Structure formats: structure tokens, C-alpha cells
Known about the structure:
- The chain is about 50% helix and about 10% strand.
- It is α+β, with helices and mostly antiparallel strands.
- The chain has a domain at about 75-225: Ubiquitin-like (UB roll) (Roll).
Amino acid sequence: MSDDKNKPNKKENKEGSGSISRRDFLKDAGLAVGAPTLGSIAISTEAAAQSKAGASGAKGGSPSAQDIAPELRAVELTVNGGKYRYMVEPNWSLRQLLRDEIGFTSPKDWCGGQGACGSCTVIMNGRPVLSCLTLACECNGATIETAEGIAKAKHPIIQAYINNNAFQCGYCTPGFVCTAKALLDKNSNPTEADVRDALGGNLCRCATYQRHPPAVLEAARNIKQKA
């Protein structure tokens, strides 16, 4: 009988020793952190809904359609030779309309819509513009070219970029191509300084800057030969 009392209880020693497995620790920590986070999200959502309902009640009656969604505006534009008509929201950018609605995915968004990288550049009415900073509702009646249209037209700038290895990952290339094409449309005989100045607003993380001027100058020569 005394022997049984003196025997160590293995189960009690294991649980009372303070040891815990890594998996149990991570599991418990995840529950402890996750619960307050989920709770705050739910509270914030509920508070926002109550605030909106209170504002509508203060005005009198239920919220109108104008309170729920912004006023849409009709925009008609020509993109790469095709006619398009869309109802756009006042805050939509041209890049959003071209990519998300029409389906031309060449305008990119490296800088998060800050107009700092040039990867979203398209040609509008003969001028290169930053589509991330251009409101779609202001483009009614505009004629727009993207890299897709430039490639479809087999403009010499495309093959020149390939010949001169003027890109690596290719993310920024459509913006460079549009800027270069706009330059060549305006100046068919640019100098290297002209090219560098025109492309100064286009950034490239792969740093292929030295290959762009030769590509644009080659395209200019090819355009002359075909003229």
C-alpha cells in the first residue's frame, strides 16, 4: 500500500512540469491573438453599419440609391481602333477602365496609383499619359492606344525592343513602348538625348535603361526606310 503511494504519477508529472509542445504553443497563441482580431473586425463592421443607418435616419427615410452607389457616367472612347461605351464611376481611373472593364492588361500599376513609375502609360489623343492618374470619366471621346494596339499594328518599336534586349521581366515594357511610340509619332528623327529625355519618367526595376535608347533609335531608322 505504501509502495503505491510513493510511486510517481507519470500523468501528473507530465502535465505539471510546465513543458509544452511547440505545436500546442502555436495553436494556443493563434487562438489568443486571433479571437480579439476577429472580434474587432465584427465590432467595426457593426459600428459602421449603425453609423450609416443613423445618418440615413437623421435625414429622414431610408437611404436613397445615390447614398448607396455613386452616380455613374457614360463614357465613349476608341481604344486600339475599337469603339467602347461604358458606365463608369467618378473615381475610376483610366487604367482601371482599360484593365478591369475592357480587358487591355498592358497598363500596369507598379507604384500603386501614385504616377511615379510610368508603367501605366498609354497614348491618349497622341500624347503619353499616366492612366493611373487620369480619370476615366474625363476620357469621353478620347482616342487611346495601348501596347496591345501598337503590337497589333506591327509598329517597328516592338521588333526594335526585341532586337536590342530592351527588357528583362517585361513588366514596365508596355509603358516604355507607349512613351517611345508617342515620341516617334511627334519626332521621327530623335537624338539619343531626345529619347532619354522622353523616357525619363519610366522606371525599370531590372535597370535595362541603357538598352532603350538604341532600340528607339533603331525603330526611328526603320520608320524612315519604310517611308
